[in-house]
Design goal:
- With 61 residues, the chain is an all-alpha fold.
- The chain has three helices and no strands.
- Helices cover 57% and strands 0% of the residues.
- α1 packs antiparallel against α2 and α2 packs antiparallel against α3.
Length: 61
């Protein structure tokens, strides 16, 4: 059965869950995906500020 495509809220919710469970790297990756799906640049910046660290995305894949 096909599901729906996750949106920014889904990724952000998962990021908070991973952070709460001591998985900061996974939390950062999920937050980066949430920020990428956010249309408001200020909101995207706020999301990334909540999950410190540099970008973990691969640029040349």
């Amino acid at each position: 059965m096909p599901g729906r495509t996750p949106d920014a809220f889904d990724f952000l919710d998962a990021a908070h869950e991973m952070a709460a469970n001591g998985r900061p790297t996974l939390a950062r990756l999920l937050a980066e995906e949430a920020a990428a799906l956010t249309t408001d640049p200020e909101e995207a910046t706020r999301i990334l500020d909540d999950f410190p660290g540099g970008s973990l995305r691969l640029k040349d894949c």
